[in-house]
Amino acid sequence: MGEWQYIDGAPLVPVEVINPFNDVASRQLALIDSGSDWCSMPKELWDELGFEQVGLLELGTPLGWVEVGSSWCDIRIADETIPVEVHYTYGYEVLVGRNAMKHFVVTLDGKDGKVIIKQTFAQ
Fold first, then answer.
1. What confidence score (pLDDT) does residue 119 get?
2. Which of 1, 36, 47, 66 is the most buried (most CB within 10 A)?
């Protein structure tokens, strides 16, 4: 279980992003993004953690469709580590998308400015 205050009005939570192929990890603040299907990370972090592209993913963005590399990653959030498909972006933040959130009960409490993760589901 975890509970975090919004930072600058955004639902950011601490996560650890782990490359399961080489065990290199990085602690990051990640945006809980209920509008995103997938988890993503900046290309710089992707390279720093040594990810190799194992597939391509076509993403719809406000600026149109783009094709980006994808791989598998482990994300540690709320004391649980889950495997998720991840892709890189040319943005600046780690996004936790619905492919990770489906493992949790997540509450975005805008009134009190909190992210609450009450429980996890079995993998």
1. 72
2. 36
